[in-house]
Amino acid sequence: MTAPLDLVVGLVVSMKGLIARDPFALGAFEFTTKPDPMAGCEVALTESFRAHGHDASTGLEPAGLRIARTFFVGVESREHAIRSARLHAQEALVLLATLLPFSVPPFRQTGAGYVFDLRAAQADPVLLRERTRVPAGVIARLDELATHPDLAVNTLLSVHPDNYGEVGSAIRRSTHWHHLSHEVEDWTEAFLLSWMAAETLTRVTSSEPLAGLTAKWLAALGFGAGRYGRQLRESDVRELLRIPEYRHWSRRLRRLFDRARRARNAIAHAGFRELDIGHYLDDEDRFLLKRVFRLLMPRLTRLALNGLALGVRTIGGMWRRYGDCFYHVRGVPLGVEVRGTIIYSLEQPPGAWDL
Amino acid sequence: MVAALALCTSSEWAAYESNPGPETLGALISTAEGGGLGQEIAPALYGLFQATRHWKVAQHLAQHCLRISSLTHAEYFAREALQLSGDDPFARVSVANVLWERRLPNAVLHETYILRVQTRRIRNRVTRRRIQGEIAELNVRALMYLANPQLARPWLTFLINRNYMTLATAITLAFGARHARAWELVYVAAHVLAPHETRIGSRVKALVKQGLTWGLCRALRARP
Q1: Looking at the complex, does the CB of residue B51 fall below 8 Å from at least one CB of chain A?
Q2: Structural contact between residues A186 and A274, judged by C-beta atoms closer than 8 angstroms
Q3: Does the bond joining A209 to the residue before it have cis omega, within 30 degrees of 0?
Q4: Is any Cβ of chain B less than 8 angstroms from the Cβ of A24?
Q5: What is the pLDDT of residues A185-209, one digit of tens each?
Q6: Which of B43, B72, B104 sits opposite A8 (nearest CB)?
Q7: What does the DSSP 8-state code read for residue A341?
Q8: pLDDT per residue as tens digits for the range A114-153
Q9: Cβ-Cβ contacts under 8 Å, A37 against chain B
Q10: Could you count the other beta carbons within 10 Å of the beta carbon of residue A282?
């Protein structure tokens, strides 16, 4: 547990087309071109500019830039403060631009900025966007043999979309939304897009209730019950029931998906954003959902690709033959995957990657 | 950090460090600005505040940040001063001043309401009158910013009786009164602003001229 921090966060925003007194205040923010009076802040800002590929030598004002500055008291981490500042600054900028009597060039954040720790008297640059902080490595591809995913992707993309029926085009649509979910800034947008990506590979008919998706998603994660549980091998079921946390996580995930469904409705139908979604999902739910979707999406896609390999052409057919699709070319035993990957990942404490 | 700054080797700094107060602060600021060390004032005061956690240093830092238009730091240190002082009225005046600079008139009125209650408990008459003056200034600014001359009038009367009004208050009064078409208040503001012609902008000057013209016309109409 780290000590709470008092921080000043300054974010560089582009406000071309607006002439206003310097500084002017908007909500919790002060918008200014004046330098920060505290030692080290200007150096940190210059460094941040450089890291973001901007030229700081011309100064802020000629480029139509301002610093949106605010402070946080007792915040738990620097990353939380930056994220909160970004979201609130975005809200303030959009509100201002929308309510101005004439249209102006869009006010936007440049990504550059600095953080001044008011207790440690230390200034740090804001370097890169935190959302890019996902585990990343290097993969070497060998093509002496047909390998996954090359073969699957080539097979899918080298023919007309209709050739693989509903499942083939659903995979294409799903990956589109899944990719977009990594690009957006607001958590609720990412969540809605991930939900769409997962729903694309799950929903059989437009009248299927959202609650029905929960059972399928649990099954994709290895927590199959009911008609999906009956398609699992008996040895796997015995292995699963021997995992001490299995029942706990099964219940917890079911409740989480129910809450997520209500939150999804609030986002889609009432426009809730990350700033307001706390009413439906607390911080723990949000970080857990993020991890759950990170685990769920590749498993759903694999299920669909296996379905294609087995000649399944419809989403309904894929879920009817859940057991076949699930066990097709499966290397890792189900019990090992559920205990060693799914439950292990969900039990890890929140870290910087969960932001 | 404090020792690394050139300002901290001066005798004025030593005087301020041993006795933080308006006089020692004034001497420190004039020395720093005269010697081209103006940008060292905030880091020096901040270093001292970190070392001592003295609420008056936080208060002075807030006032200095306000003077150099650094509203975020000003608000943070004003709130620190208010907390560390155990709700000192002058610290609250600083908070209200920052809120005014952020143009949050309703928040200013909220703070001045608390100040009015606090003022009743101040026994020293001079201190009480000073705080009352600050409350009146802040209320006139906030209420005239909202173009509400009816509510501002009692506070304005207080300032007129005191025979003193800051230029910032007079400017807000002039613009608010013009918006509310309360020309006699524009005239009052014009009287305050007219002698400071070199310190006010062209828009304010034009408004002063309008106010004075209105006063002259009224005087001519009143002639027998």
Answers
A1: no
A2: yes
A3: no
A4: yes
A5: 888 999 999 999 999 999 988 888 8
A6: B72
A7: I
A8: 999 999 999 999 987 655 455 667 767 666 776 666 777 7
A9: 39, 41-43, 65, 68, 70, 73
A10: 12
Total count of residues recorded for chain A:
355
The 3-state DSSP composition of chain B as helix, strand, coil percent (nearest 5) reads 80, 0, 20
Give residues with Cβ within 8 angstroms of A288, minimum separation 6: A256, A346
Taking the C-alpha atoms of residue A318 and residue A313, their distance in angstroms, rounded to an integer, is: 8
Q: How many CB atoms neighbour CB A139 within 10 A? A: 4
Partners of B79 on chain A (C-beta within 8 Å) are 73
Cα A137 from Cα B35, distance rounded (Å): 55
Scanning every residue of chain B, which has its alpha carbon at the shortest distance from the alpha carbon of A36? B70
For residues A178 and A295, give the distance between their C-alpha atoms in angstroms, rounded to a whole number. 12
Amino acid at B207: L
Task: Give CA separation, A153 vs A285, B120, B208, in Å.
Answer: 34, 79, 75
Q: Please check whether residue B195 is in contact with residue B208, taking contact to mean a CB–CB distance below 8 angstroms.
A: no
Could you give the strand order of the β-sheet that contains A24-26, starting from the edge strand earlier in sequence? A24-26, A29-32, A65-75, A5-14, A108-117, A122-125
Of A8, A32, A71, the CB nearest to B69: A32
- Distance, in angstroms, between B76 CA and closest chain A CA? 7
Q: How far apart are CA A228 and CA A240, in angstroms?
A: 14
Q: What Cα–Cα distance (Å) separates residue B86 from each residue in A65, A98, B74, B207?
A: 39, 42, 18, 43
Phi, psi of B47 (to 5 degrees): -60, -40
pTM, two decimal places: 0.76
Amino acid at B131: I
DSSP single-letter state for residue A351:
-
Q: How do residues A35-72 score in pLDDT, each as one tens digit?
A: 899 989 999 999 998 888 777 677 777 778 899 999 99
Q: Mean pLDDT for chain B?
A: 91
CB A217 within 8 A of CB A199: no
Q: Which two tokens stand for residue A91?
A: 């809200």
